[in-house]
Amino acid sequence: MSLLTLMQRPRSYLVFLIILGGSVWSVAKAAQPVNETAATATSVSATLAWADVTRLSTPVSGVVAVLPVQPGQVVAKGSVLLRLDRAPFLDRLAAINAERAGLVRAAAEAKRDAERTQQLFDRTVASESERQEALIKQEKTQAQLNATKARADLRGWDLARSELVAPFSARILSVDTAVGETVSSELNAPVLLRIARADVINAEATLNPSAAVGIQLGQTLTVHVDQSTVSGQVIALVSEPAVNGARYRLLVQLKPAKGWIAGLPARIDLP
Questions:
Q1: CA 117, 123, 126, 129: dihedral to nearest 10 degrees?
Q2: What is the spatial distance between Cα 40 and Cα 2, in angstroms, rounded to a whole number?
Q3: Who contacts 134 (Cβ-Cβ below 8 Å, separation ≥6)?
C-alpha cells in the first residue's frame, strides 16, 4: 500500500495500524531469549539475635544495695549495674590494713635488731646463737608482713568485685535480683543480670551444606532488615546435627539501626 493511499484513509484506521504494530513489537521482544549470564543474588531467611549475651554474677557474697538498671535499658561501658553493701568489705580491708601497718613497724625493728646483732657478732661480742635468733626473728616478721600484704590485696579485690559494671556498651536483657536480696557465691554464684552488646546485633540463619560452601569467617555479606540494607561481617559458621544430615548456623554481625531488636525477620544475601 502506498503512502498516498494510507494518507487518504480515515485517521482512526491509521491509529489502529500504529497500535497493532506496537503490540507485534512487544510480542517479538518477549519472545527473545533471556540472557542467562545475568546473575541474581541468592538470599536466605534470617532472624536478628542479641550479640555477646553475657550472664553477670559477683564472685563475692553480700547484700544488694544499689541496682540502678532495668530490663530494656541501654547503658554505656563502665556504668554501674549492681553494687553490694560495701560496709563489710571496707571494714575487713581496714582491719587487715591496720594489722599490716603494725607488722611494717615490727619488720623494720627486727631488721635493725638483726643488723645490730651482726655487728656485735663481728666484734665477737654476740654469740652465733644470738645472731641466728635475730635472723630468724627478722625472717619470721617479714613472712608475716608478706602474708598480711597478700590478704590485704585479696580484701581489696573483694571490695572491687562487690560492684558490677558494664564491660561494654550494653542492653540489659534481664535483672534477676532485687535491692535487699542476699547473694551467696560460696558454691555456685547466681546469675544476677543478663546483658548483650548494644552497639552490634547478629543476623542468624540456618543453611544446608551446599549453601554454606564458600562462606568464610570475616567475609562481608549484605543483610536486609525491614526497609534497610546494611553490610555485616560473618563471625561464625557453626555445624549443627540435623535429622537429615548436617546443617550450618550462620551468624552475621552488623551495626543495628534504631529500633532493631532480637526476633525481627531479616534476609542475608549469600555469595
A1: 80
A2: 49
A3: 110, 113, 114, 116, 117, 118
What phi and psi, each to the nearest 5 degrees, are found at residue 108? -65, -40
pLDDT at 240: 83
- Domain 42-51+199-270 classified CATH 3.40.50.300? no
pLDDT digits (tens, 9 = 90+) for 91-103: 999 999 999 999 9
CB neighbours of 10 closer than 8 A, spacing ≥ 6?
none
Contacts of 175 (CB under 8 A, 6+ apart): 67, 69, 70, 71, 192, 193
| pLDDT on residue 30 | 41
What DSSP letter does each residue of 120-184 carry, written as one string? HHHTT-S-HHHHHHHHHHHHHHHHHHHHHHHHHHHHHHHHHTTEEE-SSSEEEEEE---TT-EE-
* Of the options 2.40.50.100, 2.70.70.10, 1.10.10.10, 2.60.40.10, the CATH number for the domain spanning 56-87+164-197: 2.40.50.100
In the chain, domain spans: 42-51+199-270, 56-87+164-197, 88-160
